[in-house]
């Protein structure tokens, strides 16, 4: 048992400007101290407004420049090492909204280097398995989201999520031993890193899709990614099961209001009401039980966020006092144990029968007879002189074995005895024979192996051809053409990935994957074969716009196209696309090089073998290598090294491209979600416009700066709310939405505002919100720019004010007097309507 308190770390989120409100110090005992300086005027409303310095001790504090790699090395690795050994582990991030919890646990959405703890953990555990050939491992994964005390399965294979409520609800169950079980949470086997990453990507995509403006999933929900490990020594019945929870908690400003967290942070409370919250029930072991737990407090050190960062650090200090007792979770596997016991019982029965003289007289079964045959064959083939034919104490079997042996002996062809040789020649020949025999035996073995490999390959190919499948990419064997071709074809097909395309085909052969067994297949549903599941996962990765946006009207589709064009993350998306292209090109080149290297290896091998055969034929049996042989051997070794290096790079390129593809998929989802929000905002604004105030309703969206739109009608025909307002309908001629052209209006009046300009403007202001980076929510006073309740968009009040003060309409100065301005607007509208009418009647004004 390992007794340990929860280890606490802190991470400071990078800020653009220097804030001067905190300091870090390394202490003599190896820990770090984080100090916040809070000027008195800022401390108003803070817990203690007299205090200016707040000091907190952590295992280590990671400053703004720290890399994801540093966090992984220092925080995650020690926990994972123990999980692989058989201890439970938990790593959770706690901090206010926007402080970097998701960035730390899952990673950033832009670059491969921004990979967070989860993807790095997945790579690391599979690397560790390779280093422990004496053990067999199995890995299963689950991904749970808890929102409003309800659990949702992010990896559910049966539902396509478009909102959180679409996912199956996970229920908490407690057994008699007070162990918590999660009903309806699917657990998926991951045979290799790629499988595991796919599960992570699937869960993340579901998490994003399910995030609606109303639930702000990432801010208010907790996400728990759990890796379930099982391992045992080869041939042993003792298994170790452990779990690693990687937890992204909801924003601290929200969770701190829940009872459990309050109880945890109050020193005087000895009883923690874990059952009051789903999150703490699931993580009960992590907070004071059988687990090694580590917390990362994420701190935002911009001045307005200091209060919350101080609270976060206070909470961390309290958490650091929680003691855990981690146990090695070792047990006998009941299945293996039963098998072992059965064998023992059979043996004991036979011994008993021998001892008591009681023998069975019934006939041996077919199975028993064939086992006797096998035992005799094995006995004959065993070259060990001490080999024993052990068939138990059953006389029927013993007699059968004797009979089989006799039959075999009698059926052997009689060999003529070799002619007698003179004694000295016999001695000389025997030495020569020994050498030659050894050589021939070795050659024979080699050829046998080669034939076996070839036969197996042929069988596989034949089977594949019969199933109509493409040849398997085999990085391990150097057949990289298919793999790189697949990469490039995936590049071309990205965006509309083929449904059901089986990614596992591109998986490099992983010998360990064969050993890995699914422990929880049953939870996947009976009909889920691994291939079906993979293709379903694959399908899940590709998010269709329909899934998020539903069926779109033609007008909305056009608006979407324009929104896409002006989207603020375009540059980043393009950057990732470029990188992906480069990586594919690199992979293709590398694939070709690996194949060349493979040819070099084969050539060098053949040359070396030929040379050795030649030498042997010339009677040179010396064991030492001559210069030529040594050169050939060096060339072969060099080619092998180079081949391995390139192969390793190819493998890592594969993981990188998977990540980039995932980032692009995320961007796609984000784009669609942002459009949905923007569109909803346009709709809600148009519905919120007071009907008696035409000025405001006309100018809720400003014209684009520098555009000629000032001479245009103020009302935006492309606006979805346009036709809904009776005031507007009365003031302007009815305009129709049309699918043709780039505008939404039928007529070509110069007073018509194109949707393009409308969209550019409101999209720009939307983009400004997105880029403002200010992590506080919009003040409630800016009602007209308030996003639909709960949306995470960070609107700045500056944007809102700039939009609400327009001074002219269609070139005419507004007065600020509502009545006068209403008249001006009515005039503009009337003029616009007249022009339009004139044009439609083909009359020049
Ligand atoms: N250490 C960091 N380096 C670079 N960018 C970061 C870092 N930490 C956070 N960010 C960025 O800050 C933004 C907010 O971070 P993140 O989403 O991780 O916050 P969070 O604490 O998970 O918020 P929420 O509670 O809303 O889920 C993201 O755009 C993220 O990429």
From TrEMBL:
Would you identify the family this protein belongs to, as annotated? Belongs to the TRAFAC class myosin-kinesin ATPase superfamily. Kinesin family.
The protein's matches in InterPro entries, at most eight in alphabetical order, are given as: KIF6/9_C, Kinesin-like_fam, Kinesin_motor_CS, Kinesin_motor_dom, Kinesin_motor_dom_sf, P-loop_NTPase
Please report the name of this protein according to its UniProt entry.
Answer: Kinesin-like protein
Q: Which domain of life is it from?
A: Eukaryota
Q: Which residues bind ATP?
A: 95-102
Question: Where are the stretches annotated Disordered?
Answer: 412-431, 462-550, 689-726, 773-812
PANTHER family registered for this protein in UniProt: CENTROMERE PROTEIN E, KINESIN MOTOR DOMAIN-CONTAINING PROTEIN
Upper taxonomic classification of the species? Answer: Eukaryota, Metazoa, Spiralia, Lophotrochozoa, Bryozoa
GO CC field = microtubule
| Pfam families in alphabetical order | KIF9, Kinesin
Q: Which GO terms describe its biological process?
A: microtubule-based movement
